[in-house]
Amino acid sequence: xxxxxxxxxxxxxxxxxxxxxxxxxxxxxxxxxxxxxxxxxxxxxxxxxxxxxxxxxxxxxxxxxxxxxxxxxxxxxxxxxxxxxxxxxxxxxxxxxxxxxxxxxxxxxxxxxxx
Amino acid sequence: xxxxxxxxxxxxxxxxxxxxxxxxxxxxxxxxxxxxxxxxxxxxxxxxxxxxxxxxxxxxxxxxxxxxxxxxxxxxxxxxxxxxxxxxxxxxxxxxxxxxxxxxxxxx
Lengths: 115, 108
Prior knowledge:
The complex is a heterodimer of chains A (about 120) and B (about 110). Chain A is mainly β and about 120 residues long.
């Protein structure tokens, strides 16, 4: 069964450093998402991406964040200058052709620890 | 006010019991998702509903659009059902808004 994959599974970085979290969505999916979950809190929407552009973003997704689909298979989330409060689990998700009717499939997550 | 409320927050059941987790929402939605999150953190989609009822194995999900309420039922619960169950609603656009989750523990 096709699945969303994410790398790395765990990333430790120092405050102020740039990190790139990588995702490989399901191959025929067209809609891509990033969510995050701070330890002990709800999952929160960050951004959605379609047709090579951001379709929606939350107030969390400020100028420190960017997303890219560099090669038609990977979908990346970049945090330019990490802060302690960026420590969280980051989930990538993808969904198919029909934006409304398609289910979102989640990757296993990347645990980001900022020290 | 939270847009998605789940109850209970924590639930402990004995193996074999019938379990119900509730979700209420206050916004207009195009679909509602029930998700399962295991201790390792990964999220698995259980159901996506826009009306009526769906069943998969021992899991049943229902939604009442007029009342803005959904329930997830687990029949004949088993220790392997122990996980966090999350209700999430799809709002305008395509983003999901998540509830806080219900921590379920099934004892043998």
